[in-house]
Amino acid sequence: MKFTALQIAEVLGGKVEGNENDEVSNLSKIEEGKPGTLSFVANPKYTSYIYDNNATIIIVGEDFVTDKEVRPTLIKVKDPYTAFAKLLEMYQQSKPKPSGISKKSSVADSAVIGENVFIGDFAVVGENTIIGDNSRIYANSTIGDNCKLGNNCLINPGVIIYEDCVLGNECTIHSGSIIGADGFGFAPQSENDYHKIPQIGNVILEDRVEIGANTTVDRATLGSTIIRKGAKIDNLIQIAHNVEIGENTVIAAQTGISGTTKIGKNCLIGGQVGIIGHITIADGVMIAAQSGIGKSITEEGAVVEGSPAFNIRDFQRSYIHYRRLDTLVKRVNELERNQKNK
Q1: Is residue 57 domain-shared with residue 150, that is, in the same domain?
Q2: CB atoms within 10 A of CB 112
Q3: In terms of residue numbers, what domain contains 154?
Q4: Domain containing 182 — which CATH number?
Q5: Are residues 109 and 88 in the same domain?
Q6: Residue 326 region by backbone torsions, left for phi larger than 0, else alpha for psi between -120 and 50, else beta
Q7: How many CB atoms lie under 10 A from the CB of residue 341?
Q8: Catalytic residue among 174, 195, 241, 278
Q9: What CATH number is given to the structural domain containing 67?
Q10: Do residues 296 and 198 share a domain?
Q11: Is the pLDDT of residue 314 over 90?
Q12: Count of helices and strands (H, E) across the chain
């Protein structure tokens, strides 16, 4: 399917500079522009690619000014990255979507299946589970008993959702993820043995939550482990029992969050962050990658780094001295020797 520069500009609220009748039918990276494709530049470091590019149309910022001739037609928008993301979403939605229930799937008689639902080969839907309209459950995924999935959910191949879990509308779960496995609850006994504490709660994912591949979200011991609406959880993340993650919080890969910790809304948490249990993190906090969080962060909008983590500017100043530690030790030793020799 082809689109003209003018049609794309109208969708994005942009302005065409060049031939508004130029047509594209595919997308390309700015470094690999080809005729008939559309690309974008959001980062100034890639600006040079615009001038020697075979893409037919390139999306740029509204403040972009050329300093020499440009071959492609330009569409100027307020935010190129967001505009291109919108086009990618439109492109994805234009692809045909499967529908219907595979004869190779297993759907309990008591399950309630909405309209236009797809259930793939060898997928399982348990007793009394509700699947909302337009949701898709791909091959080899399992939805346990008494679960509820909202409308327009996407469950990719190989996902397991344990019994009693609840997903809101427009949730996406990527392959290999497990929602609702037991929390890590064991009571130590007298002979260095451990008695398992039954985990009888559930997991609640509110609207528009996305869970990356091979991520685990444990069910609560009592009550619910809750991920609030709009939160985005990357691949390979461990979220323990009774954790609460606030609205629109984003967490990068390989982070681990211990039990009963409460994370505020609009937080940004880098990769490989470790967070202990039973603490609170305020709204808008930013945590740098590989940080260790050993106590509550009560200041909204705080930016921290290190293990244990503290204010990022203090960390950076301290790190300058840390890198020079060997030199400083040598200087101190030399000063001490000189003092003794006096």
Answers
A1: no
A2: 12
A3: 100-315
A4: 2.160.10.10
A5: no
A6: alpha
A7: 6
A8: 241
A9: 3.40.1390.10
A10: yes
A11: no
A12: 4, 40
Q: How many Å apart are CA 40 and CA 28, to the nearest integer?
A: 8
Question: What average pLDDT does this structure show over 41-68?
Answer: 92
In 64-173, which residue ranges form alpha helices assigned H by DSSP?
A: 80-94
Number of domain units in the chain: 2
Alpha helices, DSSP H, located in 47-126: 80-94
If asked whether residues 244 and 204 sit together in one domain, one would say yes
Average pLDDT, the chain: 94
Query: How many Cβ atoms sit within 10 Å of the Cβ of residue 252?
Result: 20
- Our answer to whether residue 321 is catalytic in this structure is no
Residues of the chain with pLDDT > 70: what percent?
Answer: 100
Whether the model pTM is above 0.70: yes
Q: What is the pLDDT of residues 139-196, one digit of tens each?
A: 999 999 999 999 999 999 999 999 999 999 999 999 999 999 999 999 998 888 999 9
What is the SS3 assignment for 235? coil
Residues 249 and 122 in one domain: yes
State the amino acid at position 262 in one-letter form. K
